[in-house]
Design brief:
By secondary structure, the chain is an alpha/beta fold. It is about 35% helix and about 15% strand.
Length: about 280
């Protein structure tokens, strides 16, 4: 399988890319690094038009099977309107990554193309034998053989929901949407937000105050999202230290916000900005 490495958001140290590329090549994949993937323009990986062009070129190249982001950070919102939905749809190839790449996952979802919320270059290079990396390797091998993602993969997260909530949730019948909660909040009210109806919503975040997480969860509630989704999966909230001025702890607050809607909720799923970051198929 041919993988094109792009940097649609923040800049990254070349050595981290080299490590991730080495891991992917050790799995037997052909890996190409986009022309601007190692650029730097302030905190960004090059000018917006260059980051967008790398994505466009990867989608247009018939030899490329998947597009993999080097890292998140911030920057994908700057280029969403430069990537035509028809191009994504016609190319039919997944984007892979997480964190700020959530914005691109939403774009791919809008185009009707599945994508993969998964580890990026730093993790691949530094943790090539970790169980989450091995799982990702297996998902990629399946995709290479079938040109589609394994239909039962997301059962990894539904098992806990079925044990603690609504019975009969089946990954073959349900669609997962979501990603980084802060990025999702930035998408609300734009043409690129998800359609949440009858989906499993998964969320994670990093370095956000509990009151800000409360605000974003309240926003989802006021939008009617919790009345539309089938279940909520909460991954890692890394470095989101408890706030002594908040009357309840972070996870208890999330449960309280969602409780009126009687949907299954899984807390502490292995998704997000930590070593335990299992791939999730979106769409």
């Amino acid at each position: 399988m041919t993988i094109r490495i792009v940097s649609p958001a923040g800049s990254i140290r070349p050595k981290l890319v080299e490590g991730g590329v080495a891991t992917l090549r050790s799995w037997g994949h052909r890996v190409e690094v986009a022309p601007h993937a190692l650029d730097t323009y302030g905190r960004f990986a090059g000018y917006p038009q260059d980051r967008a062009q790398d994505l466009l070129d990867a989608l247009l190249d018939p030899q490329v099977d998947a597009v993999w982001a080097t890292r998140g950070g911030y920057g994908c919102m700057q280029i969403l309107d430069q990537i035509p939905l028809d191009l994504i749809r016609n190319a039919g190839k997944p984007i892979i990554g997480y964190s700020d790449i959530t914005a691109l996952h939403a774009l791919w979802f809008k185009a009707g193309v599945k994508s993969l919320h998964a580890q990026m270059m730093k993790h691949l290079g530094e943790n090539p034998t970790h169980r989450t990396t091995r799982t990702l390797k297996e998902v990629l091998a399946y995709y290479e053989s079938h040109k589609s993602f394994p239909p039962k993969h997301n059962n990894l997260f539904l098992k806990a929901l079925n044990e603690n909530g609504e019975a009969g949730l089946n990954a073959e019948e349900l669609v997962f949407v979501g990603g980084n909660l802060s990025v999702l909040s930035g998408l609300h009210g734009t043409p690129y937000d998800y359609d949440y109806r009858d989906k499993v919503l998964f969320i994670e975040d990093i370095s956000e105050s509990p009151y800000k997480i409360d605000r974003m969860m309240q926003q989802l509630k006021l939008m009617g999202v919790f009345g539309q989704i089938r279940a909520l999966v909460c991954g890692h909230f890394t470095n989101c230290d408890e706030d002594p001025q908040m009357p309840v702890k972070l996870w208890d607050n999330i449960r309280w916000i969602v409780s009126p809607f009687n949907i299954p909720v899984q807390m502490g799923a292995p998704i997000g900005h930590e070593l335990e970051n299992y791939p999730v198929i979106i769409g």
